[in-house]
């Protein structure tokens, strides 16, 4: 079974600064997906960024980028120019490659990192 | 284009009662996933359903929990004889399947008194 570990229960960053959230995972699979989700106080899960394991290029979405190190099984999230609206719980998640028949496995989540933005 | 809908948003039950949580997937989505989030924890996968079929229930507790996704209507997560430990937020996600993204609903917060 796959596991996802987020070793930072809480991180704090000054507004406009850059912060990196860490995530490691364990799997015996060679093909898979990795995700970062944001959960603000509303509790709505919002997809921030997604990475396919076969892609060597790191995914980016505006101020959000990842550092994907497949050999090290590491998938960190970098948030540049932090904004007050970035304050939330951030969850790293893993999903196996397609299971065939058009289906896909459920996501395996880490325990989350609480990100605090200081004005 | 409505997103994933879950109702009720909040549900209070006394120990021993039944809880029914409903999830309407996004239009065009035939794959539904249920997750449970305990306080201070990440989401834990419970069950994956396609229309009228349970595909993977490896995360479902063996007793008191069941799920269905009928041909017509929403997916239902049913918890019989609830206990205090069932208090959690229950999230539903839907997708078109395959490599497509799972979109999450707003969750149902279940409180067992």
Q: Work out the strand percent of chain A.
A: over 45%
Order of helices and strands of chain B: EEEEEEEEEEE
Task: Please name the two chains that share the biggest interface, counting residues whose Cβ lies under 8 Å from a Cβ on the partner chain.
Answer: A-B, 23 and 30 residues
- Cα distance spanning the termini of chain A: 41 Å
Based on CA atoms alone, the radius of gyration of chain A comes out at 14 Å
Largest sheet of chain B: 7 strands, mixed
SS-based class of chain B? mainly beta
Q: Strand tally of chain A, please?
A: 12
What is the overall shape of chain B?
globular
User: Unreliable stretches of chain B, pLDDT < 50, 5 or more residues?
Assistant: none
Number of helices of chain A: 0
Oligomer classification:
heterodimer
Strand content of chain B: over 45%
């Amino acid at each position: 079974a796959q596991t996802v570990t987020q070793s930072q229960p809480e991180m704090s960053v000054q507004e406009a600064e850059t912060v990196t959230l860490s995530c490691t995972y364990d799997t015996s699979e060679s093909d898979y997906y990795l995700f970062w989700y944001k959960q603000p106080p509303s509790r709505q899960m919002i997809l921030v960024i997604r990475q396919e394991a076969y892609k060597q290029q790191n995914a980016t979405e505006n101020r959000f980028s990842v550092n994907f190190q497949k050999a090290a099984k590491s998938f960190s999230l970098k948030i540049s120019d932090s904004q007050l609206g970035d304050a939330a719980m951030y969850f790293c998640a893993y999903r196996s490659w397609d299971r065939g028949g058009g289906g896909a496995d459920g996501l395996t989540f880490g325990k989350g990192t609480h990100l605090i933005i200081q004005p | 284009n409505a997103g994933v809908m879950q109702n009720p948003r909040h549900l209070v039950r006394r120990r021993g009662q039944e809880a029914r949580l409903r999830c309407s997937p996004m239009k065009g989505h035939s794959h539904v996933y249920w997750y449970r989030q305990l306080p201070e924890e990440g989401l834990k996968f419970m069950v994956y359903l396609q229309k009228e079929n349970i595909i993977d229930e490896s995360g479902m507790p063996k007793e008191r929990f069941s799920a269905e996704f009928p041909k017509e209507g929403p997916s239902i997560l049913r918890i019989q004889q609830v206990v205090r430990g069932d208090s959690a937020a229950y999230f539903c996600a839907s997708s078109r399947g395959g490599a497509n993204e799972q979109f999450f609903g707003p969750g149902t917060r279940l409180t067992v008194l």
